[in-house]
Design a protein that fits this description.
globular; mainly alpha; 11 helices; about 240 residues; electron transfer activity; Fumarate Reductase Cytochrome B subunit; binds protoporphyrin IX containing FE; two-stranded antiparallel sheet
Length: about 240
């Protein structure tokens, strides 16, 4: 049966997310392992070396994404920083999810764009945190003395505590929700085929779906077999 699909995540965005995922876990384990003293001194020295390697990969991947996938990066930033009335209203009942899962609050839904308000908040937090860790991390690595006591302490504390907050948010909010919304999960991790069914896009992201231009109809089974397909313009 023919099924229309919408390209939600392009390959560069999927690769950026995957690199972020791997490096973030690497950085969190090595960084918090040393900071909270979970490992021996010898292991701590090795962890710090790996912390810097993971930091280098994250830095270069972010720069590469910003340069070589400039249009994707601009689209992503425009999307997450665009807050209309419905984005704000989403917070009044958290998009109806507490009602859907726990019968708490109201079931009303406010039409969202590609990402809902919660996802936009999280994405903004991640963008700022990645920039923050790149700036504070390399400053503390290359010229801690030049920073002076006050700035070094401030950079260090921001580096540890902001990333701890984002890590906890990621582990206890982002990952469980990503697993529950399994259609989005598949679109993110099926590399090169980041599609969601058009009906799904219309239900969860109506303001995004209505802007997509149909370019072709694909047969879902055939697209799945090939691992790719084109349904609507690739505004992922
Ligand atoms: C096992 C770990 C992870 C899983 C399963 C996961 C899953 C996902 C999925 C499925 C999406 C797409 C959501 C959609 O299409 O609506 C997504 C988006 C995103 N992820 Fe992750 N992710 C993980 C780790 C991370 C990490 C470590 C970060 C950064 C600290 C991160 C940051 C983001 C951001 C900024 C977005 C776009 C906005 C959003 O959907 O909230 N993710 N992730």
């Amino acid at each position: 049966m023919a099924q229309k699909v919408a390209l939600k995540h392009s390959l560069p965005s999927q690769l950026m997310h995957f690199t972020l995922l791997v490096t973030w876990f690497g950085l969190a384990i090595t960084g918090f392992g040393v900071y909270f003293g979970w490992v021996s001194d010898a292991t701590a020295a090795a962890f710090m070396r790996w912390h810097v390697y993971f930091g280098a990969v994250l830095t270069f991947a972010t720069l590469a994404y910003a340069i070589f996938a400039f249009d994707r990066a601009v689209y992503f930033l425009k999307e997450i920083f665009t807050w209309d009335r419905d984005t704000w209203l989403w917070w009044t009942n958290l998009g109806g999810y507490p009602y859907k899962f726990l019968k708490i609050g109201s079931p009303k839904t406010y039409p969202q764009s590609k990402y809902n308000a919660g996802q936009k908040f999280y994405a903004i937090l991640v963008v700022f945190t990645v920039l923050l860790v790149i700036v504070t991390g390399w400053s503390l690595y290359y010229f801690p003395q030049a920073l002076g006591k006050y700035w070094a302490a401030l950079f260090f504390n921001l580096h540890v505590w902001v990333t701890l907050f984002v890590t906890l948010f990621m582990l206890f909010v982002h990952v469980p929700l990503a697993l529950i919304m399994f259609t989005d999960f598949k679109a993110m991790f099926r590399f090169g085929a980041g599609y969601v069914p058009m009906e799904y896009a219309e239900e969860h992201s109506p303001k995004w779906a209505e802007k997509l231009v149909p370019v072709a109809e694909v047969e879902a089974e055939r697209a799945a077999r090939r691992g790719k397909g084109a349904g609507v313009a690739p505004q992922a």
